[in-house]
Amino acid sequence: MDAYPAIEAHGLIGDLQTAALVADDGTVDWFCAPRFDSPSLFASLLDRERGGRFRIAPDGGDHVRRQLYLPGTAVLITRFMSAEGVGEVIDFMPVRDGAATDRHLLVRVVRVVRGRMRFAVECRPAFDYGRQEHKAEITDDGVAFRGDSAALNLSIVRALGAHGDEGARLREDGRGGVRAVVTASAGEAGGVVLETAPDGPPARWTRDAVLAALEETRDFWRGWVGRSTYRGRWREMVERSAIALKLMTYAPTGALVAAPTAGLPEQVGGERNWDYRFTWVRDASFSVRALLGLGFVDEAEAFLTWLGHRVREAGERSSPLQIMYRIDGSGDLAEEELGHLDGYLGSRPVRVGNGAATQVQLDIYGEALDAVHLADAHGLGVPHDGWTHLRGIVDWLTGHWDQRDAGLWETRGGPEHFVYGRLISWVAFDRAIRLARSRGLPADLARWTAARDAVYEQVMERGWNAGRGAFVQHYGGRVLDASLLYMPTVGFIAPRDPRWVSTLRAMDEELVSDSLVYRYDPAASPDGLRGSEGTFSICTFWYVNALARSGRLDDARLTFEKMLTYSNHLGLYSEEIGPTGRQLGNFPQAFSHLALITAAVDLDRQLDRASSGRGPAAPR
Predict the structure, then answer these.
(1) What is the CB-side half-sphere exposure of residue 470 using CA atoms within 13 A?
(2) Is 167 exposed, middle or buried (0-12, 13-18, 19+ CB in 10 A)?
(3) Beta-bridge partner residues of 412
(4) Sequential DSSP letters for 174-201
(5) Other beta carbons within 10 Å of 526
(6) Start and end of every GH15-like domain (predicted)?
(7) Quick check: 223 and 74 in contact, CB under 8 A?
């Protein structure tokens, strides 16, 4: 087993309430249950000794491994090829697209397609991030793992032919886990089923029942992605990104997690190791644009319902929105360090919870209002109660937009007058005014309009650095910030405006490295954290949009095509790309995938208009 496989050497499976990472060596090295934000059951990705793992792979011998998704699905296939035979492990989770439940199934089908292969099955959970002891009791049908606050059953599907029954006997490994070895020949198939929160001993699973669950799961995903209306140039990558976003959605509430993992580093050995298993108002609001762009109206509506509850709660408390919440809408995200875990390749500390939840980030209101405005244009009208609460948020913002905040990137170096926060505050007022006017909704339009215009004038005066010939990260500074690539996308500035053309040229020279884009230079803009970081994938996709809208279509398409080569073997992206092309940060990252979708849809529009001679498309 690879001690610490590359971050990108993983696929993601899930059931719309939680998810698991499966490395290309056949190891489940990250799995939390019953929810994304629950304590881990397997976490060897963060500590190879204490984290716990669940591995199925050839038992010795030389072999080559490959991973792929069953086309149009979240069913993951890990193949092992040797001179003696070819075998595969098919991993999936039957979908729980309904009410929240503690019971989840992780199914691992094992089959041999050529020759003969000997597989080892190893399962050693580590409850509560490896902090809780447990006992393992082997039964006729599998093994029951029992801890003080969690339980798992592992059931053996005894259907591997002539060699299967004897080889599949489970034996304790002396470390709280079990191991079995099974030999199978071409045409033979069986597997194992992991069950969380069981209400009894391991169940007796038949091969037919497992294969039926596989077919049902396959059909669900193909039926879902088949609803996509995207017919553009990059359909395979766009649909894979859509499936990734769906896998990161908590179906009972419609909330989208930023990533299903915690603690994966932005710099190996560094301290930028955050927990992303929560719902950022910003990220999820961006997802509305991506999902509506593909025709997934139900998913967009589900998130807007979740957001509406948060807006109502904030209004009832006469308080601002938090920047992030748990997937059930609760706001307690107390951050703690797991000192007993080594971290990925020694990247410490490992953090769970997120202390940035209480930061003031003024941009979240504009992103939320932009999502509501876009949804309204797609027929998802704002109900009366929803508008009442939104109006209260906009009224609050009129009195608070002109203050320092922590910024989009959640820096821990102190508040500043970040230009991005002002930019998206302008969006909040602009979209609220448009909604009120187009729908005849009650609003203090004079006050909102005055605030919108004041923000605009302030950004143009104080956000522009004449010496640099560019808009900068915060007032009084000289640092460039890739978040401002969003300026023409939201319609704040014309993409051919000389100030914008000059800003984009400055970013070309300072933030772009062979098409990849850094969010800012940490050395020039201290953010309260040690170390450096890679290029940010969302910024690269924003750069594509900015290039296309500025008329640089050839550059935009080349940048986009280059960026596609940085995905992993399955079309998945983490948060960042390191200097060697390796992926960094939590994986996969919703921000990266929703930005890919938006870039693809917008670039298609721009290319289509250019080919028809109609000129650049207007911002949406």
Answers:
(1) 21
(2) middle
(3) none
(4) SSS-EEEEEEEETT-EEEEEEEES-SSS
(5) 12
(6) 235-600
(7) no
Tally of CA atoms within 13 A in the half-sphere of 458 that contains its CB: 22
Q: Is 35 left (phi over 0), alpha (psi -120 to 50) or beta?
A: beta
- Overall average pLDDT of the 284-297 stretch: 95
| 310 and 281 Cβ atoms separated by less than 8 Å | yes
Q: What is the pLDDT of residues 359-394, one digit of tens each?
A: 999 999 999 999 999 999 999 999 999 999 999 999
CA distance 359 to 616: 38
Cα–Cα distance measured from residue 94 to residue 251, given in angstroms and rounded to the nearest whole number: 13
At residue 164 the predicted structure's pLDDT band, cuts being 50, 70 and 90, is very low
Single-letter residue type at 20: A
CA proximity to 30, closest of 16, 10, 49, 8: 10
Count, residues in the chain: 620
Judge whether 74 and 14 are in contact, CB under 8 Å.
yes
CA separation for the pair 281, 127 (Å, rounded):
30
Other Cβ atoms closer than 10 A to 418: 28
Measured from the Cβ of residue 160, the count of other Cβ atoms closer than 10 Å reads: 24
**In angstroms, rounded to a whole number, what is the distance separating the alpha carbons of residues 84 and 132?**
41
Whole-structure pTM value: 0.96
Q: How far apart are CA 528 and CA 530, in angstroms?
A: 7
Q: Which helix (H) or strand (E) holds 516?
A: strand 516-517
Whether residue 614 has pLDDT greater than 80: no
Q: Where are the beta strands (DSSP E) in 313-357?
A: 324-325, 336-337, 351-352
In angstroms, the Cα distances linking 76 to 20, 23, 100 are: 11, 10, 24
Mutual orientation of helices 445-462 and 419-439 as an angle, nearest 10°?
150
DSSP state of 493: S
- The count of other CB atoms within 10 Å of the CB of residue 146 is 14
Q: Are the C-beta atoms of 158 and 165 separated by less than 8 Å?
A: yes
Q: How confident is the model at residue 613, as a pLDDT?
A: 80
Phi first, then psi, for residue 194 (nearest 5°) are -100, 130
Backbone angles phi, psi at 249, to 5 degrees: -100, 130
Given a contact cutoff of 8 angstroms between Cβ atoms, the answer to whether 176 and 136 are in contact is yes
Rg (CA), the chain: 25
- Count CB-CB contacts under 10 A for residue 59: 16
Q: How far apart are CA 77 and CA 219, in angstroms?
A: 16
Tell me how far apart the alpha carbons of residues 574 and 264 are, in angstroms, rounded to a whole number.
10
Work out the number of other CB atoms within 10 angstroms of the CB of residue 12: 24
Task: Report the distance separating Cα 21 and Cα 467, nearest Å.
Answer: 48
Query: Do residues 583 and 568 make contact, with C-beta atoms less than 8 angstroms apart?
Result: yes
CA separation (Å) from 450 to 97, 398, 433, 435? 45, 9, 11, 16
The pLDDT confidence band at residue 528, using thresholds 50, 70 and 90, is: low
Hey, what's the torsion of the CAs at 96, 98, 100, 106, to 10 degrees? 0
- Decide: helix, strand or coil at residue 475: coil
pLDDT tens digit string along 454-505?
Answer: 999 999 999 999 999 999 999 999 999 999 999 999 999 999 999 999 999 9
Residue 27, helix vs strand vs coil: strand
| Alpha-carbon gap, residue 299 to 220, rounded angstroms | 15
- For residue 314, give both structure tokens: 């904030």
